[in-house]
Write a structure and sequence with these properties.
It contains two helices and four strands; from the N terminus they run ααββββ. With 77 residues, it is an alpha+beta fold. The protein has helices at residues 3-12, 15-22; strands at 26-28, 39-45, 54-60, 70-73.
C-alpha cells in the first residue's frame, strides 16, 4: 500500500470524517481496499429543492495530501 493511500485511510478513519458519515452528510462509494487507487468516489448530501439526493465525486488522490486532490462529478453506475 502506498504512503498516500495509507494517509487517506487514516483521514477517513478519523472521528471528524466518521461523524459526517454517521450524520449522512457524506460517504465513500469505493471499496475500502481502493482497488482503483488513486481514484476514489465519494458522495455528499445535496440540500436543495429539485436536485438529486446526493452528488457523487470521483477524486484523483495522487501524492495525497502533499498534492491537492482534484475531483469531478461522477455517475457511479
Amino acid at each position: 500500500m502506498s504512503q498516500d493511500s495509507r494517509i487517506f485511510l487514516e483521514h477517513v478513519a478519523s472521528s471528524e470524517f466518521e461523524l459526517g458519515v454517521d450524520k449522512g452528510k457524506w460517504g465513500i462509494v469505493s471499496d475500502t481496499q481502493f482497488p482503483t487507487w488513486p481514484y476514489v468516489v465519494l458522495w455528499v448530501k445535496a440540500s436543495g429543492i429539485n436536485c438529486p439526493e446526493k452528488f457523487y465525486l470521483r477524486f484523483e488522490l495522487t501524492n495525497y495530501p502533499t498534492q491537492a486532490p482534484t475531483a469531478r462529478l461522477w455517475n457511479p453506475e
